[in-house]
Design goal:
mainly alpha; 2 helices
C-alpha cells in the first residue's frame, strides 16, 4: 500500500459566516444595582476599618501612657535606691539589735555593776550573776 499525501481544495467562502461586531450591547437593569451594592459594601467596610483603627489607636495611646508612667516610677525608684547609703537596711537592723542588747543588759532594780560583774542584792549581801555580765 502506498502512502497518499493529503490534498487541500480551495474553501468555499459562501458557507463561512462571520459574527457581527458588538457595537452596542444593551445593559441589563440589574447591572447598575450590582455596582451600587459593591460600592456600598466597600464604603461600609472602609468605615468599619477606620473605626477599628481609631479604637486601636486610642487603646495603644492609653497603654503607651501607662508604660511611660511605669517607666518614670521605676527610674525614680532606682534613683532613690541608688542614693540610699543603706539599701538593705543593715544599719537599721544593727541599731535595733543594739537597742535590744542594751535593754537586756540594763540593770534591774536591786542590781549593781562592779568591775564588769553584775551583782544582785540579796538579804545580807550581794550575789554574783555570772551569766549576765554588765
Amino acid at each position: 500500500m502506498e502512502r497518499k499525501e493529503p490534498t487541500f481544495s480551495k474553501p468555499n467562502m459562501d458557507e463561512v459566516q462571520f459574527r457581527q461586531p458588538l457595537r452596542h450591547r444593551e445593559r441589563e437593569p440589574s447591572n447598575g444595582l450590582v455596582w451600587k451594592i459593591a460600592i456600598g459594601v466597600f464604603v461600609g467596610m472602609s468605615i468599619c476599618l477606620i473605626a477599628t483603627c481609631s479604637l486601636l489607636g486610642i487603646g495603644a495611646a492609653a497603654v503607651a501612657d501607662q508604660q511611660e508612667q511605669a517607666q518614670k516610677a521605676a527610674v525614680e525608684q532606682f534613683i532613690r535606691d541608688a542614693n540610699n547609703p543603706d539599701p538593705f537596711g543593715y544599719e537599721a537592723r544593727a541599731r535595733e539589735e543594739l537597742r535590744l542588747e542594751m535593754e537586756r543588759r540594763a540593770l534591774k532594780p536591786g542590781q549593781r555593776c562592779m568591775q564588769g560583774k553584775r551583782l544582785e542584792r540579796i538579804e545580807g549581801g550581794w550575789r554574783d550573776l555570772p551569766n549576765d555580765p554588765c
